[in-house]
Structures are given as structure tokens and as C-alpha cells.
Fold:
Amino acid sequence: MTDNNVVIGIDIGGTNTALGFVEESGNCIAEASFPTHARESAEVFIPRLHEQIERLRKSVPEIILKGIGIGAPNGNYYRGTVENTPNLSWKGVVPLAAMVKKLYNVPVAITNDANAAALGEMKFGAAKGMKDFIVITLGTGLGSGIVVSGEVVYGSTGFAGEIGHTIVDPNGRECGCGRKGCLETYASATGIRRTVKELLEKSAEQSELRNIPPDHLSAKKIADAAHRGDALAREAFEFTGR
Structure:
């Protein structure tokens, strides 16, 4: 690629969506983020994504777009779809790659967001030069990207290696995937917030977290409180639900 050729990297999370224009070297020349609004449909999300891309594109007008890569919850690399994602209100199978390709006539690839993170680390990041490793992503959910012999493990269905949906308590919390006791219902930003709310309700223990309105309670605020020695916050990170 020449110097002005770029691709767009898009990371769709349950809380925020990030995007950037990236050169072949891995250098990101422009980036932005915006709320995903997880309760909206994909048909509402796509025009908002398009608006954000075009707004960012105006800041780097000399580029030539060569392709688009998307990391999304339950993104299927084989089919270019997002399927029954637990952290978004997108119903059934959404042909996301095809929807984006209607806007930009360039190659569009999609995969699970954790798999995309693993690919990025292998090519440009901490796993550069490695052939066998696992990347764990922690956010609204809990994801994992597994690389063996330099290749991402997708499995026959495209959904291999979903560590966040390993059941740790068969009688535990309901998960967005429809099962109970998945690891991400405890070990994720969403799970940690839920744990703290439960502990605050059940315990009279003093905690600085009691001064934070429930709607403003975030995993970062809980982690900061734990680092400052707040016992209830620390308990939340040790909680298993069993």
C-alpha cells in the first residue's frame, strides 16, 4: 500500500464503539468513539456508524480506503454476521458485513471482538512474534481470542473459544446468552457492577461506593475504590456468586 492507503478498524462494544483509520504499518492516523446504544437495532446503529466514519474521514481527506475490519460481539468470521449477541439488542442473525459494504464498496471482514484483538496483538502488539497465546478482553462482557500455530481458532461454527460463556455456576446468574452462571456474568464490567449492587443491598458495611448513584456506578470507580482499600469493593472482585 502507498502512504495514503488506509483501512478502517471498528470495535463494537456493548457500551461504546471505537473506530480508526489505520495505515499498513499499524499507525492509527485518526480515531473516534461514540455510544453504541445497545438497546437500539442494527438498522438504527448503522446510519450512526456511517455518520461517525464520514465525520472522521473529513479530518484525513487525502486517504484512499482499502478495506474495513470489524470486531463485534458474536461476530462470525465465516459468515460476516453478528449472531444472537447477548450484549446488544440485535435480534437473530444480522448481516453486518453486507450492511457496511453497501456504504463502502471495499472488502469488509468481521470477527469476534476478542479475536480481532488477538490478531492486532499478534501483528503489532504484545504478542508480536508469538504463535501460541490467548488474549482476554474485559468490558461489558468477557471475551477471549485463542491463537494456535499463528492462526486464530474459530472452530467449525466460528464461535470457538468463548471463555466468557464457560459456566462457573450452573445455578448462577442468568446470562444474555440464555444460560445460567456464565463467567462473564461475574467477571466483566457489567458483572462487577451487579455484584456491588447486591453487596450494598445485603450488607450494612461502610463503603465509599454508597455515595455513588446506582446509574453512575462504573467498574472503574469500583476498581479505584478497591485500590484505595475499600473492603466492599475488594470483596466484589473476589465474589463468585456461589
Notes: The two ends are 54 Å apart (CA to CA). The mean pLDDT is 92. The longest strand covers residues 64-72.
